[in-house]
Amino acid sequence: MKITRSSWPILIVSGQFNAQNDEGFRLRQLTTELEEIQHCKVIPSFSYEDGYEVFRSRSDFGCIVVDWDIPEENPEEKMTADTFVILMRKRHKGVPILLLTGRLGIEKIPVEILKDVNGCLWKTADTISFLAGRIEIHLLEYVKKVYPSFFGTLVKYANEYKYAWHTPGHMGGEGFLRSPAGVALYKFYGENVFRSDLSVSVPELGSLLEHSGVVGDAEKNSARVFGADHTYYVLNGTSNVNQIIWRSQLVRDDIAFVDRNCHKSLNYAMVITDAFPVYIIPRRNKRGIIGPVRLSEFSPESIRKKISEDKLIPEDLKANPVKMSALTNSTYDGVCYNVVNIKKQLEKSVENLHFDEAWYAYARFHPIYKNHYGMTEDELDENHPPIFCSHSTHKLLTAFSQASMLHIKNGGKVKINHDEFNESYMMHGSTSPQYSMIASLDVATRMMEDNGEIMMNDIIVDAIHLRKKIVAIEKDLKKKNKDDWFFGMWQPKKVKVKGKLMPFEDVDAEFLASNQEPWVFTSRDNWHGFEDMEKNYAMLDPIKLTFTTPGINDKGKMDSEGIPASVVTNYLIDKGVVCEKTDYYSFLLLNSLGTTEAKQGTLLSAMLSFKELYDKNAPLSQMFPDLVHEYPDEYKGVGLKAHCNDIHRYFKEHRILEKMQEAFQVIPDQAMKPSEAYHQVVRKNVEFVELDEMMGRTPAVMMVPYPPGIPIMMGGEMMNEKAGPISEYLQLRQDFENIFPGYESEIHGVERTERDGKKFFRTLCVKK
Ligand SMILES: Cc1ncc(COP(=O)(O)O)c(C=O)c1O
């Protein structure tokens, strides 16, 4: 399907559209000319205010035409023409704005407005076809520029309808049309997907592996926009970005300093590089939410101490430099580090810094995140090490799944040499890249450059409105009945505004969106629950929404009744609301570029309906018929409230949160490096061992329970007495699953087997 000019409508804003006078007549003629002769599409709007609402809600306008002198007597008009133009220009730097003026109108237009617009049209004197032609010219010029370089070239190529004699085998989609299943796929995706699915043999599009031609240009452009010296497009996710980074800097027996709260891809990075990992443990609050690693852990003394105490690193290697540090920023729950402060510590003892910002590619584009992301613009001194950043562009920006970026900032002295680095890049890349994915990275870059701050501000403000609404609902319910309940939000309770503390829900959303301070963790106001918070060290990202459920207070005291978050999120899924992560008493939703107010409304209505069903202890079979059908012995005849409390009592009696806390404070003894554990898997020197039998054994693979989604054990670590709390926690999870079937949650690296109707956890361990 070709994109035509009617795909880029023209917004014409004038109160004169229906006027029975010469101006009204000419406006209607202009619309007809544009639509019938020029094949454009016109969207009329009758007031500046309405026009602005329409403009705000969509980004596909090809040109905006504004009647500058709407008669003053129009009672409908609440906005002035100049405000309208200023607001539009603020939201969108590029779209052409043309003013329709009368003979004397131009004299009245302030200079700052004239600077913001692309031209004026004399509405009563020029011919209709001339006016339409001017508008069309502006539209076409603009639309040409909308396409960033790679995407533009790809579209141009696809529109040339060349005969393909190269891979991929479907050859522009034709291959699919030979069989009904293929036709179904073709029709579902549409022709453009296939015509732009090309092979590396198309020279116009450059080479991803060599970073040449338009692909190379797009990467360089992304580097500029994201503040990097080099940017690489990686088409197999941030999992691979992490491995490319590590492979480029570490070899056998190098020492790496790794956040235990790391993604599993970093474990695999240790495996492939054959490095010695030295771990740092993040803080955790009483609800189980993972917080920042202590700053003191990054000091040269602490790092050296950890290395000297490590039992695996041979003595003669202990004085070697730490080749890489890896820190997750932001965490899943939206804890972002003040990178400037951390760098000052780490640069004293680490040769390369790696910030895994898979969930945080947008940070650079809004001032609220100032200094809290890897590619910050602070002054780098000459001893500064190179900084690597991983971005899952596909996660919270707009790119196809698996489309990620790898950013590098050179060190003060140590520059990353592209040719050397590219060896690692090529080791992890396919020789058949997906061009649509590249285009999506190119476009994501352009979107952030053009509208990043505005888009981010919109979603931050939206998230804050939702945060405030949740508090307001709870407050309202409690006003009527002090014992009533609602879900909470993990966020500041009070905010300082002009020196005065105000309840969060009463603070203006724009104020909260434009000030970093309310979100920065302090030790004085410990709403976050992390002990000994360092000054100006970490903040909460407002768009990561952690909802809390009743059952535990901020100090960790469990109430007699409670609502486990997994019951809530199971209910929400049935209502079409899919959460990002579920912990014991909290769940996480992400407000990203794709979030709409309708989505928020659906969420609130589902949460309120859960509350209603809970309060009346509605039969479980009404909400979860499949669960009750599958496990009638456990759940038949049980009400929702009773069910929540059964699970809650189990958690309380078995101190599950404390057990989790204890388990995650342990860094087990290492019997071997992660790489060696993997070698055992390859050599088939491994066997499944059930958890009950695991004491004294060495798991060969990493175990990652959800919640909290961070590794509890790495491959090669020993399940011995020191790891006792880990074994106990996993045991508790196993028992829980047997008592509450249907609530199995993911544990990577752990399999379930069944015997005599009971489930047992087992994992691959190194043979004795
Ligand atoms: C911190 C972190 N790093 C890396 C990744 C891997 O990203 P991707 O899914 O793009 O491979 C994830 C995925 O969840 C992650 O959470």
Description:
The chain is an alpha/beta fold and 768 residues long. The protein has 5 domains: 5-146, Rossmann fold; 161-195, no CATH class; 210-435, Type I PLP-dependent aspartate aminotransferase-like (Major domain) (Aspartate Aminotransferase, domain 2), CATH 3.40.640; 452-653, Aspartate Aminotransferase, domain 1 (Alpha-Beta Complex), CATH 3.90.1150.10; 657-766, Orn/Lys/Arg decarboxylase, C-terminal domain (Ornithine Decarboxylase, Chain A, domain 4, Alpha-Beta Complex), CATH 3.90.100.10. The strands form 8 sheets. It has a 7-stranded mixed sheet, with helices on both faces. The chain has a 5-stranded parallel sheet with strand order 2-1-3-4-5, with helices on both faces. Strands 16-20-22-21 form a 4-stranded antiparallel sheet. Strand 17 and strand 18 form a beta hairpin. The model has no long low-confidence stretch (mean pLDDT 93). Bound molecules: pyridoxal-5'-phosphate (PLP).
